[in-house]
Design brief:
The complex is a heterodimer. By secondary structure, chain A is of the alpha+beta class. Helix content of chain A is 56%, strand content 16%. Chain A starts with a helix and ends with a helix. About 2% of the residues of chain A have low confidence. The chains are: A alpha+beta, B alpha/beta. The interface between A and B is medium-sized, with 25 and 25 residues. Chain A: This is ABC transporter permease.
Chain lengths: 409, 232
């Protein structure tokens, strides 16, 4: 008896118990659909983060003040001492020392209350230079950004993020030309930034107020030349790695420290993506694990029904044996029947997952990206579950002696 | 008349063990059946009739003694080998018909051919031919539920015939039938006998046994009488 005959016999059996077959498949269907959707959601979240971060500029390096070690050997936490200065930024901007750098944007950053005559709003006040829009890939939607001259003179001007602008100036009046007060100093709004267009991680990007770095220092009463972060744009994607090396060497030299006691850290978008992905991966593995357990339960359901089926069809098995079916053929028949249930459940599960991937993003505002590899793996798993959990019922059917099987009522 | 011996049993014993209790169902049966014979095995229930039927049908193996079927010693074969022997040499007709309710008549008839590895296109032709032979050529696509008891048993006879087996083994084939259907099925067996088939009929009804040309009487696990039936 060849495989096609076995498959036909199994198909007849599955079809003649339609309701039962459907119910048996249901466990596999739910398991496969949830595994595929969970993995798809995880993948979607990773893609989303990647997109958001690369939208900020993929050639970006971020130099942050690292932990500084005091003389007593106590390591201060992040931001406890700003070890980066404007001089560092200027040095990085020096084309001869660091040829792979295209632009440098040092920023200071602090949380400040911004007042208008009618309302107030606490936002992140960023002191920046004219290179900032280029390096951070931001544009101004109305008005203009400040000029180098304004940076030099410490002009009392501010560019608002779109969210900040709408919080402070509701109504039809354009914020440009209005004045806001920060720490008793009046600043003129000269522009509003375009939105980064992303909602989840973009909120802080859109809720901000940018002033010339000199103005920001005056507002916060800081006299030092320290900065919070230095954003560096490399010449190209390929220049990212050499730029990293050059900046690292330059700053180690300038600060007179060794790599082990470095008082700064340089991260790229890639490392940010990696961090975000690690979090997503943990969640995906967790949820995928739960889904896999439901798949296992589905497999046990297949075994349960196959055992019932063997008991119920004991006369049929006896007859088939009397007519010449060897134990091997009987075992194969039940095994194929179980795998058919698993496989069909897998196919239906994939269809449901594909449908879910269509309407779920609209429902929960999360993208779902289905991968062919994950889908094929799920199908393989469904088939393997059918075979794996079919082994025991099939060998029970094969072991029945024909007389006992024929005699049973 | 030197016809070939198809079935040869010598000293066949069958002991069933249930816990510490042993029960000897067959206590040394010697018998032989030649090609083309129509033999009825008669005996009351509990006589060992069913056990003999199981052994003749290779559904069970003797505890002791030898059984040659078509020249092959089948008394020591494994279940897998016995399955092949059953498929090639024996056609079964059971009291309860034992048709698969989900399959149409012709697919029930082709089942032994499926296990014999016969090609699909040939199977259907042979199944329809066998059904035509038992007078059901117009019912090939009916499921068992759509057929009368007598018709179902004729489908079962067609299934027994389809592989051209060495012997047809009928175990109380008329036990579940009314008298009209009984007559039809027995008439069919008569016809098969006339066309040269070897038939072994197991029954406890003497008027059914009278249709055969040789009666073996079994009692308490032994053959007690072996006599030809006088043509009436």
């Amino acid at each position: 008896m060849n495989w096609i005959e076995t498959l036909r016999t199994a198909w007849d059996a599955v079809r003649s118990h339609r309701l039962r077959s459907i119910l048996t498949m249901l466990g596999i269907v739910i398991g496969i659909a949830s595994v595929i959707l969970t993995v798809g959601l995880g993948q979607g979240a990773q893609d989303k983060v990647k997109d958001q971060i690369s939208a900020l500029g993929s050639n970006l390096l971020i130099v942050s003040p690292g932990s500084s070690t005091s003389s007593s050997g106590v390591r201060g936490g992040f931001g406890s001492a700003s070890t980066l200065t404007l001089q560092d930024a200027d040095a990085i901007g020096d084309a001869t020392a660091v040829p792979d750098v295209a632009a440098v944007a040092p920023v200071t950053s602090s949380n400040t209350e911004v007042d208008t005559t009618s309302t107030n709003w606490t936002t992140s006040l960023v002191g920046a230079t004219t290179a900032w829009p280029d390096v951070r890939k931001r544009t101004v939607s109305s008005g203009r950004f400040f000029t180098a001259k304004e940076v030099e003179s410490g002009a009392k001007v501010v560019v608002l993020g779109p969210d900040t602008a709408s919080e402070l100036f509701s109504g039809p009046v354009s914020p440009v030309g209005q004045t806001v007060t920060v720490g008793g100093t009046q600043l003129t709004v000269i522009g509003v930034l375009a939105s980064t267009g992303s909602s989840s991680s973009g909120s802080s990007e859109d809720d901000t107020a940018i002033t010339p770095i000199s103005t920001a220092k005056a507002l916060t009463g800081s006299t030092s030349s320290s900065v919070s972060t230095i954003y560096v744009e490399a010449r190209s994607d390929a220049a990212l790695s050499p730029a990293y090396q050059e900046i690292n060497a330059l700053l180690l030299n300038l600060h007179g420290v060794t790599a082990d006691s470095a008082d700064f850290s340089i991260s790229s978008q890639d490392s940010l993506v990696e961090t975000a992905n690690a979090t997503n991966k943990t969640l995906t593995v967790l949820l995928g694990g739960i889904a896999a357990i439901s798949l296992l339960v589905g497999g046990i359901g297949v075994m349960n029904i196959m055992l019932v089926s063997v008991t119920e069809r004991i006369r049929e098995i006896g007859l088939r044996k009397a007519l010449g079916a060897t134990p091997r053929v009987i075992r194969r028949q039940f095994l194929v029947e179980a795998s058919l249930l698993g496989f069909a459940g897998g196919v239906v599960g994939i269809l449901i997952a594909a449908a879910g991937a269509q309407f779920l993003p609209g429902l929960i505002d999360q993208p779902v990206s289905l991968s062919v590899a994950a889908t094929l793996a799920a199908l393989g798993t469904a088939l393997a579950l059918g075979i794996g959990f079919g082994v025991y019922p099939a060998s029970r059917a094969a072991r029945l002696t024909p007389i006992d099987a024929l005699r049973s009522e | 008349m030197s016809r070939e011996i198809v079935v040869a049993l010598s000293g066949v014993r069958k002991t069933y063990r249930s816990g510490s209790i042993e029960f000897e169902a067959l206590r040394g049966v010697d018998m032989s059946i030649a090609e083309g014979e129509y033999v009825a095995v008669v005996g009351p229930s509990g006589s060992g009739k069913s056990t003999l039927m199981n052994i003749l049908g290779c559904l069970d193996v003797p505890t002791d003694g030898s059984y040659h079927l078509g020249g092959e010693d089948v008394s020591t074969m494994t279940e897998a080998d016995l399955a092949v022997v059953r498929n090639r040499r024996i056609g079964f007709v059971f009291q309860q018909f034992n048709l698969l309710p989900s399959l149409p008549a012709w697919r029930n008839v082709e089942l032994p051919l499926v296990y014999a590895g016969v090609h699909r296109s040939e199977r259907r032709d042979r199944a329809v031919e066998a059904l035509t032979r038992v007078g059901l050529g117009d019912r090939t696509d009916n499921r068992p539920g759509e057929l009368s008891g007598g018709q179902q048993q004729r489908v079962a006879v067609a299934r027994a015939l389809v592989t051209e087996p060495d012997i047809i083994l009928a175990d109380e084939p008329t036990g579940n039938l009314d008298s009209a259907s009984t007559e039809a099925v027995l008439g069919l067996l008569d016809e098969l006998h006339e066309s040269g088939r070897t038939i072994v009929l197991i029954t406890h009804e003497h008027d059914v046994a009278a249709r055969a040309n040789r009666n073996l009487t079994i009692r308490d696990g032994l053959i007690t009488a072996d006599e030809p039936v006088m043509a009436s």
